[in-house]
């Protein structure tokens, strides 16, 4: 497959000489992706987690997928997102990432139709959205206010705030105390006083940064102030839709006329024009004394795909990391969740020794802790037996055994290899061909191939725009050298361990 200037994905003409539409091509690719997932994961797993996963659109190298519930979205993102992306990229190399949304949250359960049109089912994709220029109906769907849970009105078409994610339900520990204090201070600021602007929270998956964003939104909205919460993909989709519908000025004014803008997963904002508009929005709101809160999975300096001016603006406020959950905090989260379930299931009892065992065993993130509690509850309610250490061990075995390894980034590989061989990262990305630079560059390319899911063309682009054949040559050369040079083999294994720890 090749990617044209207008971002459409084309296939060769069929035997009648008729070129298939972008919609047909995207649907065909998605059908092949689902068939491969079914074959690789098995019928039971596929039916449980992927049977209701649908393709919504492919825009600027991102495949937008949807599921009907937040639980499915969370589970697939936590356990299978890398697998889905790897399979998708093997079928469509121009797809660089995936984004998973909840269909009712995105407002796409029912199609928007013009007056007088008969009711019709919403297509899984449209040629317009695949081309990166959503239809006018899509633009209206974004601009129309989305319903908030429990009847609360959503401001300005933003994503709804989860009513469960408040400051009262947030468990504080050493790793998140600073982030909580900063979020609370921003939420409680009065009389238009803006502090820590922007407030930038960063953390890995399931550590509570999104919880704090929703808590800030609830607190500020309760004061009667105007709030809009957007994920990065929703911001991008809304902006592109407004361009197609020729309502971009109204879109910009809508964003800039609020008191608090919350952007989640800012690392996913792609596209030069979209990044420029995002930067202009940041500048306008900050200059007007409006509060901005942003969350991402890494600090601003590490968002290398983001425009440098935007990174600088984000770094100019208060940057706070939400650290990993320590054992005491994990135990507190488990205890709180179990106590809340006891209001519905009075016989659900989990002893302190079991809570400590689960807290020690599951260290990845809060979502896995939630999954552990759900498994314990299922065991207690379905079997009617008490929760012991033995039953707890059996119930959470899959969460412990299938804990995914650390996700290694190409930037981390480049930095570590550069430091190890006393060269700079810019040297590795440069055109220099001296032996002191070539060998570290080849090792970094090899590690990028074996430790990440990136394709050879993508690795080449991340190494100064090199061709994929250059990467393949480097990988093969290091593979051969590893079999002949034991010292190099030990060195590369050490680098692997350092990157994966």
Describe the structure.
By secondary structure, the protein is α/β, with parallel strands linked by helices. The protein has 4 domains: 2-133, GMP Synthetase, Chain A, domain 3, CATH 3.30.300; 143-321, Rossmann fold, CATH 3.40.50.300; 327-401, Helicase, Ruva Protein, domain 3 (Orthogonal Bundle); 410-500, DnaA protein, C-terminal DNA-binding domain (Chromosomal Replication Initiator Protein Dnaa, Chain: A, Orthogonal Bundle). The protein has helices at 22-41, 43-49, 70-79, 81-91, 103-106, 127-130, 136-143, 177-188, 209-222, 232-244, 248-256, 272-287, 308-315, 327-342, 352-361, 366-383, 389-395, 397-401, 410-420, 425-429, 435-451, 456-462, 468-484, 486-500, and strands spanning 2-3, 9-10, 54-59, 62-67, 97-102, 199-202, 227-231, 260-264, 291-296, 318-321. Strands 7-8-9-6-10 form a 5-stranded parallel sheet, sandwiched between helices. The radius of gyration is 24 Å and the shape is globular. Belongs to the DnaA family. Residues 118-131 have a biased composition (Low complexity).
The level-1 CATH class of the largest domain: Alpha Beta
Strand arrangement, largest sheet?
Answer: 7-8-9-6-10
At CATH level 2, the architecture of the largest domain is: 3-Layer(aba) Sandwich
CA(first)-CA(last) distance: 37 Å
Indicate the overall shape.
Answer: globular
Task: Please give the domain count.
Answer: 4
- Contiguous runs where pLDDT drops below 50 for at least 5 residues: 1-23, 105-156
């Amino acid at each position: 497959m090749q990617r044209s200037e207008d971002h459409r994905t084309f296939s060769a003409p069929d035997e009648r000489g008729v070129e298939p539409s972008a919609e047909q091509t995207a649907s065909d690719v998605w059908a092949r992706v689902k068939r491969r997932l079914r074959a690789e994961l098995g019928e039971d797993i596929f039916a449980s987690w992927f049977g209701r996963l649908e393709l919504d659109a492919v825009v600027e190298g991102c495949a937008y997928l949807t599921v009907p519930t937040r639980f499915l979205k969370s589970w697939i993102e936590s356990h299978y997102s890398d697998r889905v992306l790897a399979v998708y990229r093997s079928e469509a190399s121009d797809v660089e990432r995936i984004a998973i949304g909840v269909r009712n949250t995105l407002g796409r359960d029912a199609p928007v139709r013009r007056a007088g049109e008969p009711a019709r089912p919403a297509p899984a994709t449209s040629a317009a959205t695949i081309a990166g220029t959503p239809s006018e109906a899509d633009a209206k769907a974004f601009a129309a206010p989305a319903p908030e849970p429990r009847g609360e009105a959503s401001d300005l078409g933003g994503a709804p705030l989860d009513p469960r994610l408040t400051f009262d339900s947030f468990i504080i520990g050493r790793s998140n105390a600073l982030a909580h204090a900063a979020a609370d201070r921003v939420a409680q600021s009065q009389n238009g006083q803006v502090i820590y602007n922007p407030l930038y929270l960063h953390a890995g998956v399931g550590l509570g940064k999104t919880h704090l964003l929703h808590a800030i939104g609830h607190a500020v909205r309760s004061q009667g102030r105007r709030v809009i919460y957007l994920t990065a993909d929703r911001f991008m989709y809304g902006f592109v839709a407004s361009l197609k519908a020729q309502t971009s000025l109204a879109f910009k004014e809508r964003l800039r006329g609020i008191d608090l803008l919350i952007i989640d997963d800012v690392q996913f904002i792609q596209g030069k024009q979209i990044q420029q508009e995002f930067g202009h929005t940041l500048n306008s709101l900050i200059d007007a004394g409006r509060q901005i809160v942003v969350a991402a999975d890494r600090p601003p300096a590490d968002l290398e795909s983001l425009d440098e001016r935007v990174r600088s603006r984000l770094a100019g406020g208060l940057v706070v990391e939400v650290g990993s959950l320590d054992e005491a905090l994990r135990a507190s989260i488990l205890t709180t969740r179990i106590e809340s379930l006891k209001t519905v299931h009075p016989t659900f009892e989990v002893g302190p020794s079991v809570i400590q065992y689960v807290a020690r065993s599951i260290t990845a993130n809060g979502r896995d802790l939630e999954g552990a509690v759900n498994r314990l509850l299922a065991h207690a309610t379905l079997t009617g037996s008490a929760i012991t250490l033995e039953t707890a061990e059996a119930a959470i075995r899959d969460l412990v055994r299938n804990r995914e390894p650390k996700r290694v980034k190409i930037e981390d590989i480049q930095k570590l290899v550069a430091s190890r061989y006393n060269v700079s990262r810019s040297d590795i990305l440069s055109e220099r061909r001296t032996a002191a630079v070539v060998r570290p560059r080849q090792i970094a390319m090899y590690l990028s191939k074996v430790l990440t899911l990136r394709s050879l063309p993508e690795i080449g682009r991340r190494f100064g725009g090199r061709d994929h054949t250059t990467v393949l040559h480097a990988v093969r050369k290091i593979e051969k050298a590893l079999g002949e040079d034991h010292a190099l083999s030990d060195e590369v294994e050490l680098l692997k361990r350092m990157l994966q720890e």
